[in-house]
Amino acid sequence: MREYRRFGADDPALVGSSEPRAAWHHVAPIHVDELEEVKRRFFELTALEPDALDRTATPGHLTGSALVLNHDATKTLLMLHTKLNRWLQPGGHADGEANLARVALKEAAEESGIEGLEIVDPAIDLDIHNVAGPDQPEVLHYDVRFVVFAPEGAEPVGNHESQDIRWVDLDDLDGYELDAGHHRMISAGLEVAHELLGASR
After folding, report:
1. Which residues 6+ apart lie within 8 Å of 95 measured at CB?
2. How far apart are CA 27 and CA 145, in angstroms?
3. Closest C-alpha among 76, 56, 57 to residue 66
4. Is the C-alpha dihedral spanning 173, 145, 6, 55 positive or negative?
């Protein structure tokens, strides 16, 4: 299995590569056929779109998001997104930052209000989804997804990005209408989280 490591926001080792392809190229496939097709589309975006890190790039651009878990990986953080009116994980635009792990960690901190978050690198999932509202042109987020651990006892406070934000038990997700990609991300993230937590005991 690929080696995964935890990093704090101030850890200089998280600087990583300035090449955005480095963030997604080495994601270990969970569902091989599906993820390989997604990787092909990521490759096409970064090869053909010089501004793939810019939120104005159309029809799509790179984003970073975080599967935020509590300290022992029994709960995940969900936010009811203000604009999309859906329960989602924290995440957002790269805005020129090629290190998408830093993007995901920054967005998780800003949107949760939790201090002391730690991100796991490399990424654990990729997803391409439309974020346009009704009667708007399609805008695709090419999303690179990472596991993020919160400190023990951390409580989210949220910001303007969400109408609600809460810890949810991982066996109590049915009422949140999460899409297949979100469930895939949780499955992949928990596999990595349990490996890391087991190694630390």
Report:
1. 53, 54, 55, 103
2. 9
3. 76
4. negative
Using CA atoms, how far residue 200 sits from 5, 155, 156, in Å, is: 11, 23, 25
Residue spans per domain, the chain: 5-200
User: 35-93: per-residue pLDDT in tens?
Assistant: 778 888 988 888 888 889 999 998 899 999 999 999 999 999 999 998 888 999 999 99
Side-chain-side CA neighbours of residue 71 (13 Å): 10
5-200 CATH = 3.90.79.10
pTM of the model: 0.90
Whole-angstrom Cα distance, residue 136 to residue 175? Answer: 27
Radius of gyration of the chain (CA): 16
d(CA 157, CA 75): 16
